[in-house]
Specification:
Elements lengths: L14 H20 L6 E4 L4 H4 L15 E4 L2 H18 L3 E2 L2 E2 L2 E2 L7 E2 L10 E4 L1 H9 L9 H6 L2 H8 L2 E5 L3 H8 L5 H18 L2 H7 L3 H22 L7 H9 L5 H12 L3 H22 L10 E3 L2 E5 L3 H9 L4 H4 L7 H4 L3 H4 L2 H11 L1
Parallel strand pairs: 2-7
Antiparallel strand pairs: 1-2, 1-8, 3-4, 5-6, 9-10
Helix pairs in contact: 8-10, 8-14, 9-10, 10-11, 10-12, 10-13, 12-13
Length: 367
């Protein structure tokens, strides 16, 4: 008996492209027919590996597929949001470019594409820009962004808001909001860089001290922590929002001009010899220091390594770079604030960083 060949999944394509197809080929025609002239914006922004451009074939197994954020005016969202969502459930095609538009289980935190013959449990999120901003960031960024807003918002969230792609914006609010959040103001940028150098300063001598004390595992652990801090520092220097842990290395690897620093950090993490480990870290520190000097954000600082006081551990004395940056902070509120930095520079809990109300409360207390 000859077996029946079952077609496999369609060929992978980047999620942003698939989401554009969903809008252009499926959602927009339904909108034009049922709500002619309805002002809206359509985008794939917010959480999702495809928004950062990091999705692969592995991403298909959950929370990936033909998805869309559909923005109406606040009044239209209140008037038409429910009926429009129901219309999409009834009339969306069951597939776009071979990928199901139905996601199960409906309402669950994690959903997967599943074929259906009935109404489509779609992932078209109908909202307005103010509500979406408040949900994702913890504040409405349309009127402006305060220093507290910048520092209380994890860089991952800012990457999600400014990443992805806008397919259509007939209202203009989404485009304006994304442009406003494209990058930190100068003084906030300096403050965050100073906080990152301060983190390095607090532990850079410990790589040698722990090794000297016979704690090889501890020395390697601290070297890895410092490598992570240097990666985040370089992303800040390169005007890229550092993403959370899963994508940090991928984002750093795509940073122009950071190849030599990456090689030094790999050497530091791999090295079994603590002397080589410390030297490799200093190679990375020095390159990052020269990078900051080239940007002109602060007075130039000699990036050469040096002993740690009278102990034989080479360091860069990273606090000097933080001091130079803070000298240039002219904002009175930021100038008097200790360099704790942004929420994700002093909080390492996913459960906290994923709740905007908590990060804003923490920043309020620190100020």
């Amino acid at each position: 008996m000859v077996g029946i060949a079952h077609p496999g999944p369609p060929q992978f394509l980047p999620g942003l492209r698939l989401c554009r197809y969903l809008y252009v080929e499926a959602v927009r025609p339904l909108l034009d027919a049922a709500y002619p002239g309805l002002r809206h914006a359509a985008a794939r922004v917010g959480p999702g590996s495809e928004v950062l451009g990091f999705d692969t074939e592995r991403s298909v197994d959950h929370d990936w597929g033909p998805r869309l954020e559909l923005f109406l005016t606040a009044g239209d969202a209140a008037r038409h949001g429910g009926e429009l969502s129901a219309l999409l459930a009834e009339r969306l095609p069951k597939q776009v470019r071979g990928w199901p538009t139905n996601f199960e289980p409906a309402g669950a935190p994690v959903r997967v594409m599943t074929a259906t013959t009935g109404p489509v449990a779609h992932r078209v999120h109908i909202t307005d820009v103010a509500a979406w901003s408040a949900e994702l960031l913890g504040f409405d960024a349309r009127p402006g962004v305060s220093d507290l807003d910048w520092l209380a918002t994890p860089a991952q969230r800012l990457a999600e808001v400014t990443g992805g792609e806008v397919f259509h914006d007939g209202i203009g609010e989404l485009t304006a909001l994304r442009e406003r959040l494209r990058w930190y103001p100068g003084d906030v940028w300096r403050h965050l860089l100073a906080a990152q150098w301060t983190r390095i300063a607090q532990e850079e001598a410990f790589v040698g001290r722990t090794a000297e004390a016979g704690d090889e595992l501890g020395s390697r652990l601290i070297a890895a922590r410092l490598a992570r801090d240097v990666m985040r520092l370089c992303l800040l220097l390169g005007r890229r929002y550092p993403p959370y842990g899963k994508w940090l290395g991928t984002a750093f690897a795509g940073l122009p001009g950071a190849g030599a620093i990456g090689a030094a950090l790999r050497d530091a993490v791999d090295a079994r010899d603590p002397v080589r480990r410390q030297a490799a870290l200093c190679d990375a520190y020095e390159a990052a220091g020269r990078w900051q000097n080239r940007l002109g954000l602060a007075r130039p600082v000699d990036p050469a390594r040096r002993p740690y006081h009278d102990r034989p551990y080479p360091v860069i004395d990273a606090g000097r770079f933080a001091t130079a940056l803070l000298e240039r902070v002219g904002d009175a509120g930021l100038a008097t604030l200790p360099p704790f930095g942004g929420a994700d520079q002093y909080v390492d809990s996913t459960d906290v960083l994923g709740r905007p109300a908590l990060t804003r409360a923490l920043m309020t207390v620190l100020r």
